[in-house]
Automatic annotation (TrEMBL):
Family: Belongs to the SusD family.
Protein name: RagB/SusD domain protein
Domain SusD-like N-terminal: 31-229
Keyword Signal: yes
Organism: Pseudopedobacter saltans (strain ATCC 51119 / DSM 12145 / JCM 21818 / CCUG 39354 / LMG 10337 / NBRC 100064 / NCIMB 13643) (Pedobacter saltans)
Superkingdom of the organism of origin: Bacteria
GO CC annotation, single: cell outer membrane
Key words, A-Z: Cell outer membrane, Membrane, Signal
Length: 581
């Protein structure tokens, strides 16, 4: 994740590429620390100027934009297998999306290594940043940017792996690899500490000194709210009995989450453009991610790609490609492979008048015939079990005349005109990699977290009276009337579960939402029942059977957490693989 306005890319791309190589080498090969390198860029002398510190931070950020993390393997592949999305590919290449992974799966190894690479780089940064070279304010601001990423890394690792080794100093020798995992509560408390420091010392996004795309003050508050909601929720590693899988006095964490959300809400700067102002507000917000633009009012934090391959920076964004709309066959097209489908419950959960429906679900495809060398574009919106029922939220292209395409029905249009939405030069027709940014925290999420915190989550006691205002702000932007259903706790909580799916689908949040609510197994059962009960379901269709695999493979006793990577358990003899793996 490198930011164009952070440095001039043409001037620094060579230096930045070299720096990233140096930093990552220091992570993976400590023998280099025993030699005096010819370059002045070594870990104990590099961080003495603002320019050097900024370059080092860019090296840290770039780890998040690699293929193993937010390029697609983590936020798309491992996130699949819920009521939100599933793969349509029956091959074993996508087993990680079907709960058929193992401790040696590349996806598992990659997530672990890249987040720990971030942590190692942050630990080096914290150790070697020279406080006497900066004002106290500038030193704290630089450090806060790094600690924000460390808090984010540890929070995410604990969510997906449970207890993990808690390393707070740089690893410098092989013996440093031998470290027992810390209880998740301790890992969360460290993430809390890092986030609190970041919230105190980071710039506000409205500040003239803020660089769009970097961590900022309100993003830290928002991720603290997400942390506290998780701490108030289900902890699957604590006990075999569901009733004992909660931290002591979980209500305290909902109170803290509410407080953090209200810091953002009461600050008044972040917002969403209402439907009454712009009926295309939802669509236009996501067009910003597609076009490398920052909507700082709504997007509190995002992973920035910018198709930096063209600038010599090795990041691997494949949003809109792996999880995009079908369009393959020739060169110079906005290629989309549609390896992942919109799950049937997403199609069914929207009201027809909800403007998010037609953006989240593409409902069309462009199929190439190698014999005729022609493309046929068809409209498939109301065929939700179609094997290329593509995700629309990060679409690279769309039909120029969708009304005409609808009128053609299943016949389709040959060589129909289309509009490229991901129009950044170098990304618009790249066969694999895109410049599409990925949202980590949006203001609408803050509003929905606020509503959930007020009622105390799934097992709280408060009703929705005080929470409905935050819910309605999200609904209004979707073109919907205010919520008029029951405010009784259980009914209102169910509405929040559904609203988070409608608003935040395909943004890498659903699986962890369902886990902290202890609802993942329940939703997989409901999803498979919906698939097999649908009028277009065919039991002999290989794609329909593939949609069912996550629900069939899921084992609650093991799949609420990832296994520790095999190579880590071999290297770290204090890291014992959990039962079942």
């Amino acid at each position: 994740m490198i930011f164009y306005n952070l440095i001039t890319m043409k001037k620094y791309k060579i230096y930045l590429s070299a720096l990233i190589i140096v930093l990552v080498t220091l992570v993976s090969c400590n023998k280099f620390l025993e030699v005096n390198p010819k370059s002045n860029w070594k870990d104990d002398t590099f961080y003495s100027t603002k320019e050097e510190a900024t370059l080092a931070l860019s090296g840290i950020y770039s780890q998040l934009a690699k293929e193993e993390l937010y390029g697609y393997k983590f936020n798309v592949t491992l996130e699949a297998g819920t009521d939100e999305t599933y793969t349509n590919d029956p091959s074993p290449n996508w087993n990680a999306a079907k709960y058929a992974l193992t401790s040696s799966s590349d996806e598992v190894k990659g997530v672990w290594l890249k987040f720990y690479s971030c942590i190692q780089l942050v630990n080096q940064f914290e150790k070697n940043l020279k406080p006497d070279m900066f004002s106290t304010e500038e030193y704290n601001r630089l450090l806060a940017k790094a600690l924000f990423i460390r808090g984010f890394s540890y929070f995410t690792l604990a969510n997906w792996f449970g207890p993990v080794p808690l390393r707070l100093t740089p690893s410098t020798s092989q013996k440093d690899n031998i470290l027992a995992p810390s209880p998740v509560f301790e890992v969360y408390k460290q993430a809390e500490k890092d986030y609190l420091f970041a919230a105190e010392h980071l710039d506000h996004a409205k500040a003239s000194t803020y660089n769009p795309g970097e961590p900022n003050k309100m993003a830290a508050h928002g991720l603290l709210a997400r942390l506290y909601l998780k701490m108030g929720g289900y902890q699957p590693y604590l006990a075999d009995n569901d009733a004992n899988c909660y931290f002591e006095n979980p209500q305290q964490y909902f109170d803290k989450a509410k407080e953090q959300c209200e810091i953002i809400i009461n600050d008044g700067w972040h917002t969403i453009v209402p439907y009454s102002t712009d009926k295309d507000s939802y669509r236009n917000h996501f067009l910003n991610y597609l076009k490398d633009k920052y909507d700082l009012k709504e997007s509190l934090f995002e992973i920035s790609f910018g198709n930096l391959y063209a600038s010599g920076i090795n990041v691997s964004g494949r949003l809109g490609n792996i999880n995009g709309v079908e369009f393959v066959g020739t060169a110079n097209i906005p290629r989309g492979f549609a390896n992942f489908n919109v799950a049937l419950p997403v199609y069914e959960i929207y009201a027809a008048e909800d403007v998010r429906r037609n953006w989240s679900i593409a409902g069309y495809r462009n199929k190439y015939n190698s014999t005729t060398q022609l493309f046929t574009m068809t409209y498939i919106f109301d065929n939700p079990l179609h094997f290329e029922y593509g995700i629309g939220k990060f679409r690279r292209w769309e039909p120029t005349n969708i009304t005409e395409l609808k009128s053609k029905g299943t016949t389709g249009m040959v060589n129909a005109i289309y509009t490229i939405l991901n129009s950044t030069t170098g990304s618009d027709v790249d066969p694999n990699f895109t410049s599409i940014n990925f949202p980590i925290l949006r203001y609408s999420d803050v509003l929905l977290m606020h509503a959930e915190a007020i009622i105390g989550g799934r097992y709280g006691t408060a009703d929705g009276t005080a929470a409905v205002a935050s819910l309605n702000k999200v609904r209004e932007r979707a073109g919907l009337t205010p919520y008029s259903g029951s405010l009784a706790h259980n009914d209102f909580f169910k509405e929040l579960v559904d609203e988070r799916l409608r608003e935040l689908c395909f943004e890498g949040l659903r699986k962890q939402d369902l886990i902290r609510w202890n609802m993942l197994e329940e939703k997989l059962i409901e999803t498979n029942a919906a698939i097999t009960g649908h009028s277009s379901f065919i039991s002999t269709d290989q794609y329909h059977q593939t949609y069912l695999e996550p629900g069939k493979n899921f084992d609650k006793s093991k799949h609420l957490l990832l296994p520790y990577p095999l190579q880590e358990t071999l290297i770290n003899t204090s890291l014992k693989q959990r039962l079942g793996w």
